[in-house]
Amino acid sequence: MGRSPAIPNRKSASTVTTDRDSERTEIATVKVKTMNIDLREPWVKIGQFGDNLVKELRREVVNGHPLWNKEVRAVAQRTDSDDVLFEVEGVEPTYAVVHLTWSGEPENDPLYPDAKLFSSLDRWVRDGMIPDHQKFIE
Hints:
Helix content is 20%, strand content 35%. It has two helices and eight strands, in the order ββββαββββα.
């Protein structure tokens, strides 16, 4: 499987800084399933606390939430909000951006924590990460 066509291939370094039209953009590469994707700020790859994000998600979701009883893995997070990109194992949609509430307990409503679902990584890049990046740098 190749790289996402929306984001060009970068060197093997985990973080690359580019200067483009006097714009400084931090790009971090993260491996998702069998693809590498170059993240644009405010998105960054998950550090050593990815399991904690999964645990918090499991604490917050209740029966009726789209991620209830789903196996997930945190793969990226925003630096400017509580949004986390989760890879959902074995089901459609395959990716979800969740705005964690950090309540540490089950939410009263299955609509929370808010989750935006994506059928593919390419969809998330196109409809999630790139618009987030554009808003972030404006």
